[in-house]
Amino acid sequence: MADAPRPAVRDRSAESLRARVEALAPWFHNIDLGDGIMTAPDHFLGDYPAFKYRRFADALPADLTGKSVLDIGCNAGFHAIAMARRGAARVLGIDSDPRYLEQARLAADTLGFPQIEFAKGDVYDVASLGETFDLVIFMGVLYHLRHPLLALDLIREHVAGDMLLFQTMQQGSVAVFDPPADHPFHKPGTFDPPAYFDEPGYPKMHFIEREFAGDWSNWWAPNAACSQAMLRAAGFAVEAQIEAETYLCRIAPVPYADLGAGAAYPARGARS
């Protein structure tokens, strides 16, 4: 996925920059481009995603010198730029929306990070990148996917070299119940189902058939236990829950890998 060439920003006047920002509106990332220009100053969530990033920024490596970073679903590039500021040697952001990619290129160029690469792609195509990354960022994407566990499987198999920064919308209990390793069909001596399926902290994935907050693409809302269980099932060890819906993980052995492939079907190659 070679990054499309982009012209140098010759006219850096505030008036010209503001016009370019407005031409690419609406923005979902509110990014401070300098000269008093914010990309989404009236964002319905406030200063997003900066206010969320500040909650967990200190949990990330302060120095990424020599490291590579992949930002899946990069949107306007806020997190990719944040990692470049920490000295990452290679930063690649992918997104399926061409307008988001144009926003990201404008933001990165304006802020002095033209070396960040942005390319069209999605999580189901990560095998086509043909490389692993020291840090994979996968934030704000899982709940938009029709096949969320497959996405985690593909990330683990093809691009995760060490760390994963993961965030998803969560709903339901924040409790975490530790279920048994093997689930019996019934309580011993009865035909009654095990009671732990009704535990608030049992891993549960809520399926949203229609819309959530006016968005038809919000398909899933795991509870906290489910987010952590899915990460473990895909081969990630949760090192820390660094924000209510955000987890810092390391690669780990994939459970049951010796018994069969984790992904439901082989990864796709590059699109023609």
Give a verbal description of the structure.
- With 272 residues, this protein is of the alpha/beta class.
- The chain is 22% helix and 18% strand.
- Strands 3-2-1-4-5-9-8 form a seven-stranded mixed β-sheet, with helices on both faces. It has a two-stranded antiparallel sheet with strand order 6-7.
- Helix 5 links the parallel strand 4 and strand 5.
- The radius of gyration is 20 Å and the shape is globular.
- The N and C termini lie close together (11 Å).
- The mean pLDDT is 92.
Shape: globular
Question: Could you tell me the mean pLDDT?
Answer: 92
Helix content: 10-25%
Number of strands: 9
Structural Rg: 20 Å
Counting H and I runs of at least 4 residues, what is the number of helices?
6
What's the N-to-C terminus distance? 11 Å
Q: Strand order, main sheet: write it out.
A: 3-2-1-4-5-9-8
What class do helices, strands and sheet pairing give?
alpha/beta
> Uncertain spans, ≥5 residues at pLDDT below 50?
none
- Beta-strand content estimate: 15-25%
Topology as a string of helices (H) and strands (E): HHEHEHEEHEEEHEE
The largest sheet, given as strand count, sense and whether it forms a barrel, is:
7 strands, mixed
